Structures are given as C-alpha cells and as structure tokens.
Amino acid sequence: MGKTSRWVNRRATHYIDSEAATCCHPDCYKPSFEDMATVIPLCEEHVYVVYRQTNQILGTRTGVDQQYELLPMEAEFIPGPCPGCGTTGLLVGLANGIVECRAGSCTYSQERTKFGAHRRKLMGIAAGRRSVVYYMRLGNRAKIGTSQGLASRLSSINPEDCMTFELGGRALEQRRHEQFRHLRVVGEWFDLTPELVRHVNDIQVVPIPA
C-alpha cells in the first residue's frame, strides 16, 4: 500500500493512494506522476502542461529569476535570450542534451552544441562592428570582455556560448570587472553565479538599426 495523503478539490475530499492514483485532469485516466501523486495527482504530460502555463503566467521579459525548481529531466537554466523568441531566463538545458525554451508558446528546441553555435552566430550578427561588452560562457565560467568585431572575436575564442552583449567599450568593461570582482577567477573570467546570471538576463540585446 502506498503512502496516503489528503487532497481537496471543489467537489469533494479524496484520500489518494500514491500507487493507484490517476491524473485529476478532466478526461485523463493515466497514472499520476509518481513524485506528484500525494500532492496533486497529475500524469507526466499534464505536469508539464501546468509547468509551462505557470511560466507563462509568472514569467516576464527577464524571466522569473529561477524561483521554481527544475523538473527531473531538466539539467540547468541557461542564461541569456532565446534565439527563437528573445525571452531571457527561460532557456532550459535538458539531461538528454537538448536546449528548449519554456516561454509561453515558444517552440524553440535545439541540440546543445548546435544551440551554442546558433546563438554565437546570432550575437555576432546583432553586434556588427559596434563596440560591445560581451558575456561568453564556458561551463560555469563567464568571460567579460570588449570587442568591436564580436563575430571574429567569438570565432577566435570559440566559447561554448555567447550569452549576451551590451553596447559599450573599455570603460563599461572596466565597470563590469569592478562590479563582479568578487567573482573573478582569473583575468577576464568570472564564476557564473546566480548574481551574474541575473545581470545577464537583465540585459536587452540591441540589434543593429534597420
């Protein structure tokens, strides 16, 4: 016999056996997701439906600041804008190596290495020949530097990803180095902590005017 808990809905009070519970979504009789059975009995499909809808309700242009937990198959949040819809803070790296966006109806999905190459290319195009301060990523490290030719700079360094950039030159770069000096590992490389992730997610990439 599985653990039993009390679950209340508008119509009645139910006692739910975690091993026997079925999804409480209307007209769905699939077995409830094991980790949810004694809380709210939902099948795996409807757990994801509720999850995505919650993101849509709570999310903003800068994301929800990672105030919800990753689902079992989700390995990590990926800082910076989605290449598909531009929303920041809602890119998720899955344990199977796929990157997906959790923003509303966005359907962006890409294999991890292709995602990195795709976003590096888009960032290089968006920056053009303007002077920018970039935020490259390699694992749990971020490189904060400046360039007037971001595409060629990315090609020479070949990082895992270019999370974002902001318009500015050496003076802005120095301000960012000072701002995050407590996170410095060596040179222009910094620990990619939640503080730095929030900063990256707050940056709105400014494309070249048409």
From TrEMBL:
Pfam families per the UniProt record, alphabetical: MUG113 (PF13455)
Protein name per UniProt: GIY-YIG nuclease family protein
Show the taxonomic lineage: Bacteria, Bacillati, Actinomycetota, Actinomycetes, Mycobacteriales
